[in-house]
């Protein structure tokens, strides 16, 4: 995502006192992360097609860009004919965005506001369109969507549009023995020593990675659909039942999650997927390893429940639980925690403190 609206970071805080929220906010001032996202042709190209190719929706309209980052979406909107665009961001990258906007001749059309959306005063009180690239890993990681919903409730005109306007989260099961052996079972024997106490911690940390389609052993199941025009913040904590039907005789080592995004209000629908069947995106997919290997036969159904909620200590982290079982058998439940700390080199890396 281009950036998010979050609380101010004390840049003089020590690394020991900084939370994952602080690192997240600080990290988006670094150009490297924006470079990765801008080079994601699926992501950026989809937004460009949805905005620039629908000038009839933007011509003469006012547009609010929530989490504007480098200003790329704001410039797409201005190019599409918007009369005025306001971009909001609290990261220091907005200082570079101002220079980018001026260099490209949009300073009379685009106004940038630095600060937290909930705290700043905008030059316009009602907007025709809200644009935002709010999605995180597992769709909801980083919890930026609640800020977009706040912007909708406070600033969007009746009948206004949101780009994108729908998001759908999917779950499937995968065979992943080799990588699970490397990532999880590795701790059983580390150069002849028993490190198995770390194994449980590693298992509870979802892995963000690319997975080949051939590893998927079940049909996918939709577990969450979000309509941004009607969704409430309370909807972002949920529990969803799922049924996964095996497509072949194989083994399950993990569950796999991904999401699809759609711009339903466009003249020609623009959609993209982050799934294993689709072109690579920087969101990749999210892998949840199971404690033990599950044997499944073609046509057999695995039943379960996935629950997801913001972490009580840091609402940008996610607490995720997956319960699963075969019909008539005892259920298995695993609690996962999805959280991130970005080190100084600012390479995305999932990490959860154990305290």
Automatic annotation (TrEMBL):
GO terms for biological process: methylation. GO terms for cellular component: nucleus. PROSITE patterns: SAM_MT_PRMT. Residues 165-328 form the Protein arginine N-methyltransferase domain. This is type I protein arginine methyltransferase. GO terms for molecular function: histone methyltransferase activity; protein-arginine omega-N asymmetric methyltransferase activity. Gene3D superfamilies: Hnrnp arginine n-methyltransferase1, Vaccinia Virus protein VP39. Its EC number is 2.1.1.319. It comes from Pisolithus microcarpus 441. SUPFAM superfamilies: S-adenosyl-L-methionine-dependent methyltransferases (SSF53335). Keywords: Methyltransferase, S-adenosyl-L-methionine, Transferase. InterPro entries: Arg_MeTrfase (IPR025799), Methyltransf_25 (IPR041698), PRMT_dom (IPR055135), SAM-dependent_MTases_sf (IPR029063). It catalyses: L-arginyl-[protein] + S-adenosyl-L-methionine = N(omega)-methyl-L-arginyl-[protein] + S-adenosyl-L-homocysteine + H(+). Residues 63-160 form the Methyltransferase domain. CDD domains: AdoMet_MTases.
């Amino acid at each position: 995502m281009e950036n998010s609206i979050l609380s101010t970071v004390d840049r003089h805080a020590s690394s020991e006192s900084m939370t994952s929220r602080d690192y997240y906010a600080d990290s988006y001032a670094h150009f490297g992360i924006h470079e990765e996202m801008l080079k994601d042709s699926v992501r950026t190209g989809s937004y460009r097609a949805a905005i620039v190719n629908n000038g009839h929706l933007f011509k003469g309209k006012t547009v609010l860009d929530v989490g504007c980052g480098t200003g790329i979406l704001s410039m797409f909107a201005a190019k599409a004919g918007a009369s005025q665009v306001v971009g909001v961001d609290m990261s220091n990258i907005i200082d570079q965005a101002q220079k980018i906007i001026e260099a490209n001749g949009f300073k009379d059309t685009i106004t940038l506001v630095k600060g937290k959306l909930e705290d700043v005063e905008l030059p316009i009180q009602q907007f025709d369109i809200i644009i935002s690239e709010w999605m995180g890993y597992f769709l909801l990681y980083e919890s930026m969507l609640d800020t977009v919903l706040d912007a909708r409730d406070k600033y969007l005109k009746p009948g206004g549009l949101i780009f994108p306007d729908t998001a759908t989260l999917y779950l499937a099961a995968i065979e992943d023995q080799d990588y699970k052996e490397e990532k999880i079972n590795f701790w059983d024997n580390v150069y002849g020593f028993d490190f198995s106490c770390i194994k449980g911690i590693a298992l509870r940390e979802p892995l963000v990675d690319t997975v080949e389609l051939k590893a998927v052993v079940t049909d996918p199941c939709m577990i969450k659909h979000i309509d941004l025009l009607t969704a409430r913040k309370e909807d972002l904590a949920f529990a969803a039942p799922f049924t996964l039907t095996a497509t072949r005789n194989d083994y399950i080592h993990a569950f796999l999650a991904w999401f699809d995004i759609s711009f339903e209000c466009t003249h020609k629908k623009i959609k993209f997927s982050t799934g294993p069947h689709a072109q690579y995106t920087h969101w990749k997919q999210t892998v949840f390893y199971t404690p033990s290997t599950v044997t499944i036969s073609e046509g057999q159904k695995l039943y379960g429940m996935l629950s997801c909620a913001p972490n009580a200590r840091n609402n940008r982290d996610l607490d995720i639980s997956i319960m699963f079982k075969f019909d008539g058998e005892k259920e298995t439940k695993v609690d996962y925690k999805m959280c991130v700390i970005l080190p100084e080199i600012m390479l995305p890396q999932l990490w959860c403190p154990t305290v």
